[in-house]
Each structure stands twice: as C-alpha cells, then as structure tokens.
Amino acid sequence: MEVNIFYLAVIGAIIAYIYHRVTRNNDYFHDKPIPSLAVKPFFGASAPLLLKQATFSDFIHSIYNKFPSVKVLGVFDTTMPMFVIRDPQLIKRVGVKDFDHFLDHRPTFGQSDESDNPHALFAKTLFALNGQRWRDMRATLSPAFTGSKMRQMFQLMEECIQAMIRHLETDLKQKGSMEVEMKDVLSRLAMDVIASCAFGLKVNCFEDRENEFLKHAKKMMLFGRFTVFLKIMAFRWFPEIASRFGLDVIDKEQAVYFSSIIKDTVQTRESKGIIRHDMIDLLLQARKGTLKHQQETEVHEGFATVHESDVGNGQMAKAMTEPEMIAQCLVFLLGGFDTVSTAGTFLIYELIRNPDIQEKLYQEILETEKSLNGKPLSYDALQGMKYMDMVVSEALRMWPPAPATDRLCVRDYVLDDGEGLRFTIDKGTCVWIPIHGLHHDPQYFPNPERFDPERFSDANKANINLDVYLPFGIGPRNCIGSRFALMELKAIVYHMLLKFPFQRSENTQIPLKLKKGFVALSTEKGMFMQLQARS
Contact, 197 vs 205, CB < 8 A? Predict the structure, then answer.
C-alpha cells in the first residue's frame, strides 16, 4: 500500500510539474494594453487547429477577424505567446525596418540545436538557422536565386515539364479522355524538378511511380506523419529536453539517404569536371567562395516576386560545411515540393471555376507561342506574359501556401504606433503575421472571395498595399526561392494549358474542402479534373 501511495505521489508530482510548465505563462497578456484570446491548458488558443476542428487558413482568418478594430492582439499557440499584428505599418516596421529585433523564426523544429551531428540536418537549413549563422548562410545563398541563375536552370525545369506532358499525351492516346487528380500530378512533377535542379538526378516519377527518391522524400515531408507531429509538440512544450535528446524533424534514414546522393554527385562532378548549372553547382561555388553577387539585367519580374535585402550582399564569415550544403538541398526539397504543387493545384481549380479567365490566359499563351517562331519557351518570354502574372498573383492572394508567418523577438522591443498604443514585446515571445487574413480583408482587396486577376493589371496594381500582399513573406527573412517557384508555376500552366483545357469532372469538388488540423494548405479529397487533348 505504501509503495502504491509513493508511486501515485510521484505520478501526481510529474503531472503537476508538466501542468505548471505548460501553463506558467498563461496570464502573460494581462498587463498588455491589447485584447487576447482565451487560453486552454496545453493548447493555448490553438485547440481548434490541433484537435482538427478547423483548417489552418480558417484558424488564422478567425483570429484576424476576432477584434477587427485593433492593430495587435495576443494569442497563445500552445505555450508560446504570439502577438498577432494586423496593421500594415506595424507589419512593415516589425518585418523590415526593425528586423534586427525579429531576426529569427520561432524555434519550433529544433533550431536551437548547435551540435555537429551530421545527421541532424534540419537545424542547419536556412529556414532554421538563427542570428549570425543565418545571416552568413543567407548572404552565401542569395546569389544562387537571382534571375540570371534562374535562366540557367530553366532548361532543366523545362525537360521535366515536357516529360510530364509526353506522359499525359501517351495516356490520352489510349483513353481519349481521363480524370486526373492534379495534386498528385503536380507533386510528381515538382519532385522531378527538385531531383533534377537540386540533386542532379533524373527520376521521372510518372514512369517510375515508386522510385526510391520519391519514397524517401514522401517520408520526409514535415506534416505527413504522426511521429513528426509528436516531435513538433515536444519542441513546443519541452524545447530544452527535445534539443538535449537531439531530436530532428528529418529522420536519420532520410538524412543518410539524401546525404549519400549529394556526396556521390559532388564527388563525380569534381573528379570529372561536370558543370550542369543546377543547385549543386551553385552550392559548390558557394563552398569555394566563387559564387558572387552580379549586376542583374533589367527584366520584367512577377508581381509576387520578393527582392533580396542588403543582408544578401555581405560575405560569409566561414566556409560552408558539407552537412550545411546537404541541408540546403534538403530545405529546397521541403520548401519547394509542396509549395509549388499546392499553388498549382489551387490555380488550376480557379481556372476551372472561371472559364472566361482561362480562355483569356490561353489566348496569351497562344500569342507567346506564336512569337517564339518555333523556338522553345524561354525564361524571358515567360516573364513577359502579363496576364499570366496577373492570374498567378491572384491565385497566391486567394490561396497563400503559408497562411501565416512568424518572427521570434530576439531582444525586447517597444512597439509604438504613435497614436497611443505603446507596450513591450518581450524577448523570447513571437510575432504572427496573419497572411491569409490580410489577403482576405475587403479593406485591402474588395470582394476578396472573388477570383479577379484584374486586381494586378497595370492600371490597378499600384493601388495594392505591398505591406499586406505577402505570399512569400516579408523582409530579409522572406522566401529566398520566390523566383524559382514562380518560374516553375508559370511554366507548368503554360505547357499544360497549351495542350489541355482545364475542365470539370464528375469528382471536381466545388467549393473545395480543405483538410483540418495542423497541416499545410491541402484539399480534403484531392482536386480532380477532366483531361483531354485540344483538337
């Protein structure tokens, strides 16, 4: 009996300790002059999201609209105090002007791991790095994502897209017409593109549907597995313990697999002098210190393209290590695979819903094709398509792949709007920028639920507040791969629409229903469409 009482006491003490750990800051916003949402133990205000009662986009939208007249409100995301900033001027101040106070991302996935473990790769990626290590890596990588480098990689991307078109055309010759699930189609294409451009491999996920590269990549996708969710929760609730045990979002099996690919590719290229103008070539130049900023030729760039800040013009303080080089290839896979396939899926969905817009875009594609006089599509020709850019920009407004972005406050910051709102955002807390809420605010985008590319016409786009249009984030910590993503997205739509009209099938879900819970933007049952060759 005494033993049982002892064990019960120990269990009770552990439960009390855990409860104290996860609720100790619950009254944090009480002395701040801003409203805040109610807090639930373990979940904060995120219970609807974590319990799969709401989609991520709807969750951010509901927070954004909770107090429509305020500039800032407080939210607990599990145990982390988050300042949700709704005001465009304050967003710009936090994201750009006073960026040095908000240098890092929230330490959700083990960014604090500074170990030299070669298999703990996520902590070495550009996304996860902090402070000066991030500055050095951003400065090193930024020349790899300029327009001139995109021109060099464009042919590699084109080869992958043409292979997909040939595969679909072969199937259509046999079937005449067929229903396809576009997320699956675009995911396979995105994997081919990343394998080619970031790993130097030709895998063809359409012909070899279960190849090793694809299987390992699927296992590594962040939000696809329950074990990854548990790791994320461990980092949120007990970050010190998670880091001490060396937890990494990327499992050792996948880390070893992709590391071996990159090491073999690097060894082959260096021994044989192979130059392919892909990401590995650029990273090898970065390791040798020969990847430099160059004066860019003036070209028309997409409205959604984010531009590099001065942080990218410095020099790296130390050489890039081999594990760091491997990690950047992996973050290219993690960041580029789902973002492009998701954006393309929702863009095609809107073109199915709006056949008049689809037809206008098709006519521009035909005009561009004619102007090429039989030559293959070029990067500059793609960049010159104004209506294409309007359509893509509007799709990214309606369906931003990241419904929100965060910044960690690295030193105390006094937020002052100059109109009486003044308080301190304390070091160690976070800022949330509610992208989905901003993109769907009628104050900035009238009739926001309407798909209207004309918002981004030459006559109208000057009226758009750039501080609230944030499909690729804001400030020095924005998405470094925006040019690559936009290039790929436009090239996909160009080639597909040239060959096939986008048509509704019997399983096309309108309106689309999104997956609920702590997952990236995705549909509940896929996005089906009918495919047939143009006559």
Answer: no
